[in-house]
Specification:
Structural class of chain A: alpha/beta
Strand order of the largest sheet of chain A: 6-7-8-3-9-10-12-11
Strand content of chain A: 15-25%
Helix content of chain B: over 70%
Oligomer: heterodimer
Radius of gyration of chain B: 26 Å
Distance between the termini of chain A: 28 Å
CATH superfamily of chain B: MetI-like
Number of strands of chain B: 0
Number of domains of chain B: 1
Order of helices and strands of chain B: HHHHHHHHHHH
Number of helices of chain A: 11
Largest interface: A-B, 38 and 25 residues
Strand content of chain B: under 5%
Shape of chain A: globular
Structural class of chain B: mainly alpha
Distance between the termini of chain B: 29 Å
Radius of gyration of chain A: 21 Å
Number of strands of chain A: 12
Largest sheet of chain B: none
Number of helices of chain B: 11
Largest sheet of chain A: 8 strands, mixed
């Protein structure tokens, strides 16, 4: 039994007088303790909505969530608001994209960190301050005592993200959801933050869901990767399988559009044609078909099913998948991973 | 960078150390930064000086007054019927009023009353308005369906108050409660309630969608705690600015009430608004009686307005470096 099992999760945004938008459409994945699972895709593919739905943080009005998200035997989607608040921060915590706006500008860092400690662990006063300082120290913030009294704008971007991570891991949650934790940071800081997350996961056995559009991040961290497109998982595989033998044309397209060290100088990157808006409703066929180079007539005959590739959990949702030979060689992949 | 000569180098190091020391200032909050910006703004300085002088006057004014503001010392020299009043002279700098009282002393003593009216009225409006706005904003932002319902009721009530012209509302309140100094303060304060309420509610609604609120929710922080420690402190900026601006309005409105005959009926405590009201009968003979209190009110209001505007600029995140 996995720590978190999301099955058939769907989120529909229905505003009165407007067309319904199905942001997440039957997503299924699971996360084991100590495992790092990636949710990958372009903007608007439903990766953030998936995580917010699991956390119960979507607005109640105009949103329909269905399916299951079983965490440690409880279905998070059916938990009442009070119980869910106890779970958040204590068992599951989240790290957000923009560390500047995710910290309250008028309150010192220390207050924001101790807030979580007081809420879930009942720590107050000196005990809380001591624990907060230890947390900041653990996430690599130098001179934590002084930093506790400082305000978010006095910290650098990387430091702010570290402070947010400190708040998230304050109660040693069993599951951490990181929603594009490195997008707002520059590249060297990105690497440091990823390293920190890796260490935290390794030390405490926390499971991590990594939401990102950056395949480089995925390559360095994730054990299992789910590629999302238009609200559905289109390919799921272990890290090596995904990079060595991607089968879905969308995954191949994503891999082809990232710059690599071994490309010939002056050679252009190959982007995926069109944009995320050019989707077909899944009911009519493969949503990726309008942008796909390998489209065949069968693509438009209803939604394709997930097809298992091997016994290691590699699956894809494609009628005309890319043959395994047509992708980069093993050595090139080794370099990337 | 080329190699520096020893003398210049020492100078440079000193300068660097100075800069580092400056950069190392810790614990500067949003408010402290705003204050630092405020100090660099000439408008703010002028406003602050006027406000400070006014405050000083209201404290020490009665002690400085050369005569009692109510004693009719020069009663014999004045004649209302013939329009004879002693003008400005050595013993009465601003002349003598129609009842034979020293005008200068009345101006000095009147400052305190005027300030009291302005401050208390603003406090009434601020306290009740922010309470109403905070409840409404918290309910709308984080209270779910029942919260939105409560917010709707409260805001429609403030809409009703806002729909009435402010002076008319103040006049009605003053008329219902009867003539007294307290009435003036309450009447002028009540008018400000919907403004404060709407302002804080709007500001809180904007903050309720902020990322740090989502982050706090994702950590399971309780809703009242999110409201009190995250949403309200971030929403107070515009409300505090409004309070300084309201002080000016309140003084003017209190004067208007006095002018309309709904002000403080007690003649023993001079107040600029009341003095202005009294002066209207003698406008053709002694226009200066209207001019002095009016000038006092206008300058004070200007001081508070300048300070308030400067604070708005200092607190505006868009103008922040």
């Amino acid at each position: 039994m996995a720590l978190l099992e999301v099955s058939d999760l769907s989120v529909v945004f229905a505003r009165r007088g407007q067309r319904e938008v199905r942001a997440v459409d039957g997503v299924t994945f699971s996360v084991d303790s100590g495992e790092v699972v990636g949710l990958v895709g372009e903007s608007g593919c439903g990766k953030s909505v998936t995580s917010l739905a699991v956390m119960g943080l979507l607005p109640k009005r105009g949103v329909r969530v269905s399916g299951q998200a079983v965490f440690d035997g409880m279905d998070l989607l059916r938990l009442d608001a009070r119980a869910m608040r106890d779970v958040r921060g204590q068992d599951i915590a989240m790290i957000f994209q923009d560390p500047l706006t995710s910290l309250n500008p008028v309150v010192p860092i220390g207050v924001q960190v101790t807030e979580v400690l007081t809420r879930h662990r009942g720590l107050k006063g000196d005990a809380a301050a001591k624990e907060a300082a230890e947390l900041l120290d653990r996430v690599g913030i130098p001179d934590p005592r002084r930093r506790l009294k400082e305000y978010p704008h006095q910290l650098s971007g990387g430091m702010r993200q570290r402070a947010l991570i400190a708040m998230a891991v304050a109660c040693r949650p069993r599951l951490l959801i990181a929603d594009e934790p490195t997008t707002a940071l520059d590249v060297t800081i990105q690497a440091q933050i990823l390293e920190l997350l890796k260490d935290l996961v390794r030390e405490s056995g926390t499971a991590l869901i990594m939401i990102t559009h950056d395949l480089g991040v995925v390559a360095g961290m994730c054990d299992t990767i789910n590629v999302l497109y238009a609200g559905k998982v289109v390919e799921t595989a272990g890290r090596r399988d995904l990079f060595a033998r991607p089968r879905h044309p969308y995954t191949v397209g994503l891999l082809g559009s990232i710059p690599r060290l071994d490309t010939v100088r002056g050679e252009r990157l190959t982007p995926i044609r069109g944009s995320v808006r050019d989707v077909l409703p899944w009911a009519e066929g493969c949503a990726f078909a309008p942008r796909c180079d390998r489209r065949v007539d069968d693509c438009l005959n209803g939604p394709p099913d997930l097809v298992p590739v091997n016994g290691r959990g590699h699956e894809h949702r494609c009628v005309n998948p890319v043959p395994p030979e047509a992708v980069p060689t093993r050595e090139q992949v080794e370099e990337m991973v | 960078m080329s190699v520096l000569t020893p003398g210049r180098k020492a100078e440079r190091i000193d300068r660097l150390a100075e800069l580092t020391a400056l950069a190392d200032e810790t614990g500067r909050s949003l408010w402290q930064e705003a204050f630092a910006r405020l100090r660099r703004n000439p408008m703010a300085i002028i406003g602050a000086v006027i406000v400070a002088l006014f405050l000083l006057l209201s404290i020490v004014g009665p002690l400085l007054a050369p005569y009692s503001p109510t004693a009719q010392i020069w009663r014999e020299e004045t004649s209302t019927a013939q329009g004879i009043f002693p003008g400005p002279r050595a013993e009465n700098w601003l002349g003598v009023d129609h009842l034979g009282r020293d005008f200068f002393s009345r101006m000095l003593v009147g400052a305190r009353q005027t300030l009291l009216v302005g401050v208390v009225a603003t406090l009434v409006g601020f306290a009740l308005g922010t309470l109403l706005g905070a409840v409404s904003g918290a309910a709308a932002g984080l209270g779910g369906r029942r919260g939105r319902w409560l917010d709707n009721i409260l805001m429609r009530a403030t809409d009703v108050l806002l729909a009435l012209p402010s002076l008319l509302l103040a006049v009605s309140v003053a008329a219902v409660l009867g003539r007294s100094l307290t009435t003036v303060m309450i009447a002028v304060g009540v008018v400000q309630i919907p403004i404060f309420a709407r302002l804080l509610r709007g500001s809180m609604l904007a903050q309720a969608n902020a990322d740090y609120v989502l982050a706090a929710r994702s950590l399971g922080v309780r809703r009242w705690r999110i409201v009190l420690s995250h949403v309200v402190p971030n929403s107070l900026g515009p409300v505090i600015v409004q309070a300084t601006l309201t002080l000016a309005t309140a003084i003017i409105e209190a004067a208007a009430l006095s002018y309309l005959g709904l002000g403080n009926p007690d003649p023993s405590t001079p107040e600029w608004g009341l003095m202005l009201a009294d002066a209207q009968v003698f406008l053709e003979v002694r226009a200066s009686w209207a001019f002095y209190p009016a000038a006092g009110i206008v300058i004070t209001a200007l001081g508070f307005t300048l300070l308030g505007e400067a604070m708005r600029e200092a607190l505006d995140p868009k103008l922040r470096k």
